[in-house]
Amino acid sequence: MEAGEAAGAVLFLLAAAVSLLAAVSTGALDFTYLVTVVGEGSSTSPGSGGGAWWREAWVGARSRAVAPALQVGVWACMVMSVMLVVEATYNSAVSVAARLVGWRPERRFKWEPLGGGAGAGAGDEEKGEAAAAAYPMVMVQIPMYNELEVYKLSIGAVCGLKWPKERLIIQVLDDSTDAFIKNLVELECEDWASKGLNIKYATRSGRKGFKAGALKKGMEWDYAKQCEYVAIFDADFQPEPDFLLRTVPFLMHNQNVALVQARWVFVNDRVSLLTRIQKTFLDYHFKAEQEAGSATFAFFSFNGAHLDCSCFISQKEHGDSLLNTGTLLGTAGVWRTEAINDAGGWKDRTTVEDMDLAVRATLKGWKFIYLGDLRVKSELPSTYKAYCRQQFRWSCGGANLFRKMIWDVLVAKKVSSLKKIYILYSFFLVRRVVAPAVAFILYNVIIPVSVMIPELFLPIWGVAYIPTALLIVTAIRNPENLHTVPLWILFESVMSMHRLRAAVAGLLQLQEFNQWIVTKKVGNNAFDENNETPLLQKSRKRVNLPEIGLSVFLIFCASYNLVFHGKNSFYINLYLQGLAFFLLGLNCVGTLPDHCCF
């Protein structure tokens, strides 16, 4: 057991203790009042009125069957809520503590600059062959699929990396089915090759495994086998010139490190309300979850690329006749080739190959480093439908991988028991299953129904204090996004429906659990900062019936609560939730590029 792992376990216990102490000190923790049967209407006798018998029958069924069944759900959600708030408190506490003490990866892992420092021109010819030999062979892979809008951005950014030309191989893996785009990408590669860059344009006859298959095939070339490290950038990612200079030294000087991951920044985070909300969500992910995992257990998920303008197909339906199919893969990171091979290479058994590879590498004893101050530009999904499908894929794939990896994690011999608990409990169970379950079931089902079931008991600490605590710990690491947090809460309420459906599909391996998603980018030119874009913009897409249906349900429950006052008044929240479902049901969020597909 390493010091970081022990510190992480101690901080987790402290987070749980602080949460429990706060609940006890405020008097919020009270389990004595489990089920209260309110006698309203129960005294009605059969002879008290002409149709009162149906009301008495309903009250009897409600108090004897409906309320007890729902009460079980309430307490299950309370347990999950506690798990969620402790996990969030732990992540934020580790992240804040690391920031306060000035913790950096260099304190735990050795790092020394190459070629006289990151600011030096690593590819200058005057350094000579002797100086260049000090640099390891690095291959940069750029998987592409019909990337008309962004292929020049990614290729140009990668070709601008500071690294000796004779020690760098750029591999463009083009699976495009559009002959015109394919020709443009090949010409772009030839143009850079004429400038002295060692750039390889690689294609394949089929598209088996999609991008995972392309990356796997790319590693089979003879020149690829000469490279010690492999950097991966999706087609819309634009690394800074010093990316390799800041990441590769970690791998060179720490033989147990498999991956160095950079943080994403977004070229379109202010384009619409949708992208602003996504930035709030992802900022917490990078600032809290990734930093906490890296600082304590040296483990986190290799992040996957963002998706735009998506449509589903089945994994079984391979073939070029299916347009724009792609996978979600990790990007903006550098892998040790030995670690990829040791973990079994890229696999397409789930829709989150990046996470799959990361977990398998961890179980082999490899460690990861997250560099929060190293930024790589990328895109956010700019339409609501694209974002929904992206989140479905992430949630479904993560839950399915949880199902597949439970036994592998338990029997792994190269990781400590604490890290096993962290992976199974925090990384998989709480984040992939508990979070979407409690968010949807409690706030979109049980609380709305409770206004019509007076016998149902909802503890105030579960429906008020815990959400407030979650809001606070989220805001602590996102002060610059504080103004969007209320809208983010409502948006996440809607997204919980999609995430829960995806998690169930992944856990049970339902028909849609292994669906693949199109990736279509827009490019920097579509996100001119001088262009004014409405926060709410109606798209040409037809209405989303699930969202509309839930909006009707929530508004009905809110109206019932307003007219027939009971023990609790949730109608303001329910009206806001109903409005959020309604607006998203009409696709009144996001942008509408003219060339975007629907």
TrEMBL record:
GO terms for molecular function: glucomannan 4-beta-mannosyltransferase activity; mannan synthase activity. Its main location: Golgi. Residues 229-445 form the Glycosyltransferase 2-like domain. It catalyses: GDP-mannose + (glucomannan)n = GDP + (glucomannan)n+1. One of its GO terms (cellular component) is Golgi membrane. Its EC number is 2.4.1.32. The chain crosses the membrane at residues 72-101, 422-446, 458-476, 545-564, 570-592. It is an enzyme of class 2 (transferase). GO terms for biological process: cell wall organization. Probable mannan synthase which consists of a 4-beta-mannosyltransferase activity on mannan using GDP-mannose. The beta-1,4-mannan product is the backbone for galactomannan synthesis by galactomannan galactosyltransferase. Galactomannan is a noncellulosic polysaccharides of plant cell wall. It is a multi-pass membrane protein. This is glucomannan 4-beta-mannosyltransferase. The keyword Transferase applies. InterPro entries: Glyco_trans_2-like, Nucleotide-diphossugar_trans. It comes from Oryza glumipatula. The keyword Ligase does not apply. Keywords: Cell wall biogenesis/degradation, Glycosyltransferase, Golgi apparatus, Membrane, Transferase, Transmembrane, Transmembrane helix. It is found in: Golgi apparatus membrane. Belongs to the glycosyltransferase 2 family. Plant cellulose synthase-like A subfamily.
